[in-house]
Structures are given as C-alpha cells and as structure tokens.
Design a protein that fits this description.
Blueprint lengths: L3 E6 L2 E6 L9 H14 L7 E6 L4 E3 L17 H5 L3 H12 L4 E5 L2 E3 L1 H8 L2 E5 L3 E3 L11 H7 L2 H10 L2 E3 H6 L5 E3 L4 H13 L3 H14 L4 H16 L2 H12 L9
Parallel strand pairs: 2-3, 3-5, 4-6, 5-7, 6-8, 7-10
Antiparallel strand pairs: 1-2, 8-9
C-alpha cells in the first residue's frame, strides 16, 4: 500500500506508517489502515501487531492539512459529504477491533489523529523523543478528547485538549499510558521483545482475551465480570486451554496448535 508497509516476523505483523515528511494522514491513508488491521485477524500466522511510523520525526503528526490532500467536492462520495469523518473513525475502530493485540511503538510526535491512533493500541512503548498532544484547538479544529480520556484522567485530558500543549513520553509513562520509554535506537527492539512475549501465548486465548476486554471496557462491574466468565467458558472448550494447564503442571513450554 502507498502509505503503509507490512512486514511479518515470527508471528508479528509490523505495520509502518510511511508518509513523509511527518506521517500525516488523509482519507486514502485511513482506508489503508482500516483494511490492513481488519485483515490481520484472518491470518492464523499473525499473533501480535506492532504499529509505528517511519523515520524518527513523527509516529503520526495528525491530519494532512495541505490543499493537495483534499478531494475536490465534486469527486467526493455522498457519505464523504454528509459524514466527512467516517473513514478516520473506521481506521481507528479497525485498530481497536483488530483480533490480535496491537503494540504502538511511538517514535516521535503523536499529535491529533496520531495521538488517537496511539490511544487505539493495546499497549504503548515510546522513544525518549516522543511527544503527545492534541493541538487541534490551535488550528481551528476539534477532536481526540475522547482518546485522551482513554489514556489519562479527566482533568489531565481536559488540560491537554483545551491548551493544545504537548507532553513528553516520560510524562505519559508517569501517568501510566506508556509501558516503557527507551532510547530512539532501542524502540523497535523493545516493542518486538514485548510482541514476542505475547506471541508465545495461545493465539486463541489472546484473541478471546482481547475481544472480551473490548466488550467489557465500559460495562458496569456485574455485567463485565459475567461477560468475562462467558469468555472463559468459551476458552475452556479449546485444546489450547488444556495444553496451557498441562504444560504448567509438567514445567515445560506449551505447544499450541489452534485446536
């Protein structure tokens, strides 16, 4: 795809946003992100995905605001006229709903839409040079406050959204949104190390676990835990579940076979 590179390595899909100079995105990019992440779930060989940006300037600097990125009104499809943001949303939902865990490797600025896509990942590691923010208020736009609220508490989210200020990777680590902050040249090694740890687990259990967490995220405790119990019952039907317990008892590495 023109704006994305996808590489497979040891059951890990490495998805790289490559749109120089700062990996800003437009509607064509949204379609590519949507299609790539929706398709990963259909491949049994994929157990984890890593999303990153090309270069060291930006993970994604937000929406491409250049005139050349805009489709002429006469060429837009009806839905683009009545709901201009639907492609951006579909791309975000594809990351959230991706069947396998998605690790964001944040290698530079994650601003606006870039912050939103980072927030849609399941886990984040970041370079020391990474910066996070929603500067839309400064350019006559709004958006991504809901994503900020996924990553931090109410008051910090409002502070960042209303001021447009950027915060460091270290601050995001302090508030618990980022798992680890690394030197720039160690970022992908760190992300891939985490990905390999997840890829070693049962692919069936991992997919059910992510689907379960997505479903219960905004449910009250009673309904959420009941849903988790239902997913546990589903997992117990698979031999992967029995193999995990056998391997634990026998003190050996499990051998998962998608059965």
């Amino acid at each position: 795809m023109p704006d994305l590179r996808v590489e497979m390595r040891d059951h890990i899909a490495i998805v790289t946003l490559d749109r120089p100079p700062v990996n800003a995105v437009d509607n064509k990019t949204f379609v590519q992100i949507r299609d790539v992440f929706a398709g990963l779930g259909d491949d049994r060989d994929v157990r984890v995905a890593v999303l990153t940006g090309a270069g060291d300037k930006a993970f994604c600097a937000g929406a491409d605001l250049s005139p050349s990125s805009s489709t002429p009104r006469s060429e837009r499809r009806p839905r683009e006229l009545t709901d201009a943001g639907h492609l951006a949303r579909e791309a975000m939902w594809a990351i959230i709903d991706c069947a396998v865990p998605v690790i964001g490797a944040i290698n530079g600025h994650a601003l606006g839409a870039g912050l939103a896509y980072a927030a849609c990942c399941d886990m984040l590691v970041a370079s020391e040079s990474a910066r996070f923010g929603t500067p839309e208020i400064n350019v006559g736009l709004l958006g991504a406050s809901a994503h900020l609220s996924l990553m931090m508490g109410r008051h910090k989210a409002r502070e960042m959204f209303l001021t447009g200020e950027q915060v460091s990777a270290q601050e995001m680590y302090r508030i618990g949104a980022v798992r680890e902050v690394t030197a720039p040249d160690k970022l992908m090694d760190t992300a891939l190390g985490l990905a390999r740890e997840l890829a070693a687990k049962s692919p069936i259990a991992m997919r059910l676990a992510k689907e379960s967490m997505n479903r219960i995220e905004h449910l009250p405790l009673r309904e959420g835990y009941r849903t988790e119990q239902d997913y546990t019952t589903r997992l117990l039907r698979f031999d992967d579940s029995r193999e995990a317990r056998r391997a634990f008892r026998e003190k050996r590495d499990p051998e998962y076979k998608w059965e």
